[in-house]
Amino acid sequence: MSNSPTKAPRKRMAFFYAKDAVTLGPETMSREAMSESALAGLAKVTETKTPIGLGEKSLLLFKEPGEKGMSLVYLWLKSGYVLPPHSHDGDCLYYVVGGELHIGAKVLRKGDGMFIPADAAYTYHAGEEGVEVLEFRNATHFNIALKGNEGGLWDHLATAFRERAVVWETETVPPSARK
């Protein structure tokens, strides 16, 4: 009997095509149970009556088969879109493809990026022309845990939805987001 560890199967080269991308759904990103303050914040956004998905588009570009492996998500947030305060249970490396991403006092533009470790809460918003982001993860399944309303973040989000909905209706998807 050998005590050597079992080797993982050797990975193979894989290709993916934009035309085959699918909307990011719960089979890849599950939503965790929310706190009372996050539910209250989400209710404020719901009260704006802005259609879900009007201000953003997320596509799962690549996901390795099985429970472990890499995944790649494309995210386009329209102008002024505010991402709700949240965290994920896996590390994520973000790369800005176009537009501007505002996080705290930082502004990230095309070619910039950020690393967000697992379970770190964060929020950001898109600049005046929106933002396109690639999200690289070393996970094929990850969660999203919406956070509370510290500092009025959900109020800011609801205001953005209320004030930007009319503009979002006419904003067109950047060429890089078209299938």
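(the above was protein one; protein two follows)
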Amino acid sequence: MLADRPMNGYQMIQEIAERSGGVWKPSPGSIYPTLQQLEDEGLVRADEASGRRTFRLTAEGEQYVQEHAAEVNAPWESMSANAEDDDAAGLRPLVAQTAQALWQIMATGSPDQQARAREVLADTRRKLYGILADGDDQEGGPR
């Protein structure tokens, strides 16, 4: 989002809620630690004006966004890819909640917590592909 324009934390919360169609509205308790982590990594900087901290990408942050465009855009694409599919609509809130939990682990989790999250994600991916490999019991109906 900061690649589009500088924003304060509240604006980011609103933007995430809007981009996700209201499915994902992160709390300040998840946004601000993430911003602090990105600031510590030199990817964003905060400017104080009128009592508000506005965050913007640094040159390093802009380079990261360019080099990792697919990764950066993946959450938004997954939320909008099946917007018209009623069955997928039931999955969207769970996907958003899972993404929020993962983002927290990435931003503030210990190395052990991050390693365990990688294991869970790898196992989940295998299981999801297993569901697709099983197919349907009857034509037009899921198993």
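Reviewer note on protein two: The chain is about 65% helix and 10% strand.
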